[in-house]
Design a protein that fits this description.
Two copies of one chain form a homodimer. The first copy, chain A, is of the alpha/beta class. Chain A folds into two domains: about 150 residues, Isopropylmalate Dehydrogenase, CATH 3.40.718; about 160 residues, Isopropylmalate Dehydrogenase (3-Layer(aba) Sandwich). The first copy, chain A, contains twelve helices and twelve strands. In chain A, the strands form two sheets. In chain A, strands 3-2-1-4-12-11-5 form a seven-stranded mixed sheet, with helices on both faces. Chain A has a five-stranded mixed sheet with strand order 6-7-10-8-9, sandwiched between helices. In chain A, β1, α1 and β2 form a beta-alpha-beta unit. Chain A is globular. The interface between A and B is large, with 55 and 55 residues.
């Protein structure tokens, strides 16, 4: 498999992208194409040890910054690492694409350049959040701020396929994020989505209240992109704030520092659990191509894990399955309506 | 001031309600009327020491359970502690009302029995969440699942008044919960609400991303009730889950237990910070009456703190100020539109 990497996306680019890629070609069955300023990439690569020929460079002169307006950026910067990389994927010059850059530009670029899988109404950005039982997938976490009930149904279908194929969960528990567990709870959107999900044939476990999200009661959390974004960012923010509090508690004086030594293992495990870099990238489910978003502050390990996820995504045929199931369920729905 | 207490609402009722009330009449300038089954309340009170005559009992035979359907419960149970208590407030037999019972029934009851302050479109349930700087007020946290932009404007106005009057913050920072900090970010609702808030004359500090909520960047968090409910419950759930993790880390073996002793002060401070009982009750802003919801698992201290908040609410004339400001801004808005 040939993975196209946006080498100039993210806070730690390009070095972390290159380092993660080098590790990937050494440890995984992947070839890498780094897209970005060739001289810079050449310079970084020159000091590194990796199997000959498994990393290539494709020059792209421009970089889309984090704060640029997404749509105008992808229109104006045709020679940016993001636009060039996505176009290469579209043209079959690679099997998948990863970026840690501007999320909005990534979404807009993937929509315009790759397009949707036939039958998918709204592709969804689907990151993981850590839970007490491992991770849960949020569908959607920000690609769609205003949703209709049928979008949420498709989110459930796509999320379930992803967790089954890539995570090997036989029957992923799909839950609807809601403000009560009873069937009749919620806003207009979730009330209508509930019955669609209940009749979908998915392993729909009903509504989940936000209070239970950290306990991992569901594998797939279905919600509109606005709510998903709140869940993702609040989890991240609270994790950081609480970790800061714990750190402050331990660094207060000599005695507390000594205490930290005694629970070192536990602290490390806790930090690892909250660490987004463990969980690879967030796919954009429903896009006609294997594309993944790594966290903006990804380090080399995070890029390596994103590449690993992308390989699984491609090898297990996630998009093929999405296409089959969406179009099959689509037909049933139409039959029901007539 | 005479505070009417639903003595049969909440997980620890009636004992915790009575204990909190006894502490209140001893320490605060408040008289208490306990509403509920008289023999039970008499029995609990009989062993307690408090100023003669400052606690009265009003008998109510029925109790509305946590899982009962709100609207049918308040219709069917006219002799419940909730309905009797709210009706007493309506009739001027007390100056404020507190319950820790069924939130839906409380909302429905307050709407029907007390009604809205003239000009207020949608009353809002407004609990606090702990932050690194103290607390932030969520407006709304679940009374209104589907909102219009003008509702969010009123939430900002009411929340600002509450934080100013009850918390003594001269110019409360009002922020709109959104999925980006830029003005043009968000869903249809927040985009439209942004310009209303920006032109409101409030100390509007713009959009806040959920990631920054735990750091206390705003005093008032404006959002629809569905999103507010997610923020409230996710904060609570993550706080509990992370505390469980920390506890597990410290109770692993003798060495880690020893370590816990050394950071005991820090742990206690952390727990206190995350403790909802510190922050009293959540008012229902916009209702024509001083009503407050205490957390379902309130203990005596939480009830005491709720009574203290209610006194401040009433003494500082929150509802009077809401009425003045909503109707003043309402007129300006109409003038602008014509």
């Amino acid at each position: 498999m040939r993975v196209i990497m946006d080498a100039f996306g993210g806070d730690n680019a390009p070095r972390a992208v290159v380092e993660g890629s080098v590790r990937a070609v050494r440890e995984l069955d992947a070839d890498i194409i780094l897209v970005g300023k060739e001289p810079v990439l050449q310079e970084i690569l020159s000091g590194m040890d990796y199997p000959e020929g498994r990393i290539q460079i494709r020059h792209a002169e421009e970089v889309i910054g984090c704060d640029e307006s997404p749509i105008s950026a992808i229109r104006a910067k045709k020679d940016s690492s993001l636009v060039v990389g996505l176009t290469m994927l579209k043209n079959g010059e690679g099997d998948g694409f990863i970026t840690a850059g501007n999320t909005g530009a990534y979404l807009a670029g993937a929509f315009r350049i790759l397009g949707r899988i036939k039958g998918v109404k709204r592709p969804a950005l689907t990151p993981f959040i850590p839970t007490d039982q491992g991770v849960s997938l949020i569908v959607d976490a920000g690609a769609n701020n205003d949703c209709k009930p049928e979008h949420l149904l498709q989110f459930g279908i796509m999320g379930s396929i992803y967790m089954k194929q890539v995570f090997g969960i036989a029957s992923p528990r799909v839950a609807l994020v809601n403000n009560g567990t009873e069937e009749n709870k919620g806003n207009e959107l979730t009330k209508a989505a509930y019955s669609l999900l209940a009749g979908s044939g998915l392993n729909f476990v009903g509504n989940i209240e936000a209070r239970r999200i950290p306990y991992g009661d569901a594998d797939v959390l279905v919600c509109d992109g606005f709510v998903g974004n709140v869940i993702l960012k609040l989890t991240e923010g609270l994790g950081m704030a609480l970790y800061d509090n714990i750190k402050a508690m331990f660094t207060k004086n000599l005695l507390t520092k000594l205490s930290a030594l005694m629970v070192k293992g536990g602290l490390r495990a806790f930090k690892k659990k909250m660490d987004y870099t463990e969980y690879g990238g967030a796919p954009l489910l429903g896009i006609d191509g294997a594309v993944m978003k790594a966290h903006g502050s990804s380090d080399a390990k995070a890029f390596y894990n994103a590449i690993r996820s992308l390989l699984l995504f491609e090898q297990t045929g996630v998009n093929q399955k999405i296409s089959e199931q969406i179009n099959c369920i689509g037909r049933e729905e139409i039959a029901d309506e007539s």
